[in-house]
Design brief:
heterodimer; A: mainly beta; six-stranded mixed beta sheet; five-stranded antiparallel beta sheet; 54% strand; B: mainly beta; seven-stranded mixed beta sheet; 0% helix
């Protein structure tokens, strides 16, 4: 089955700096890669996703990149703000009908004001 | 407002006492699923449902039951809870076009089994 590894497990950055979280996956058939943000006391929230037919996707201050050859994908947050502090999860899945999602183990991001 | 509602949010109970965690969504989504979140393990799927009366096991189904009698509701049942089921539980939903990948999560239920 699919295995998703996520690094680092914790990340502290100064406000205004960039943050990068990296994930690798094992199943070359996976082609859908969502990212979730989980704030304290809340459920995960889907913030951005990427499909394997594109190499990069941006949404304001966040971007995801995908390297299918190396089987890794990354979340980039620029100009970090205190409200970006949360736990971030990457995930991998196939598409077509029902497909199970395999999650990474999470990265706790702390943005220091 | 689109939402997934779980109840209770917190529960402390004892081994063997049957409990049910309710989950309801107001988006008319076909897919619903349950996850447990444990430190260092991420989110692991317990059960999922593709529609009314259609359910299947996820990665960690032992000790749990589910039912999907109505499209909006997907309760998680622990018939005889044990301490190893102490965890943070999330219900999630997504539309048919989402392919089952969870789009909306509830805010979680923290269960402590003594």
């Amino acid at each position: 089955g699919e295995n998703v590894e996520q690094h680092p497990s914790t990340l502290s950055v100064q406000e205004g700096d960039s943050a990068v979280i990296k994930c690798t996956y094992s199943d070359s058939a996976s082609n859908y890669f969502p990212w979730y943000k989980q704030e304290l006391g809340k459920g995960p929230q889907l913030i951005i996703d990427i499909r394997s037919n594109v190499g990069e996707k941006k949404d304001q201050r966040i971007a995801v990149t995908l390297n299918k050859t190396a089987k890794h994908f990354s979340l980039h947050i620029t100009e970090t703000q205190p409200e970006d502090s949360a736990v971030y999860f990457c995930a991998a899945s196939k598409s077509g009908g029902y497909q199970k999602v395999t999650f990474g183990t999470g990265t706790k991001l702390q943005v220091i004001p | 407002e689109a939402q997934v509602t779980q109840n209770p949010r917190y529960l402390i109970t004892v081994t063997g006492k049957k409990l049910t965690v309710t989950c309801s969504q107001n988006m008319n989504h076909e897919y619903m699923s349950w996850y447990r979140q444990d430190p260092g393990l991420g989110l692991r799927q317990i059960y999922y449902s593709m529609n009314v009366e259609v359910t299947d096991k996820g990665d960690v189904p032992e000790g749990y039951k589910v039912s999907r009698k109505e499209k909006r509701n997907f309760p998680l049942i622990l018939e005889s809870p044990s301490p190893n089921q102490t965890s943070l539980y999330f219900c999630a939903s997504s539309p048919w076009t989402g392919g089952g990948q969870p789009q909306h999560f509830g805010d979680g239920t923290r269960l402590s089994i003594l």
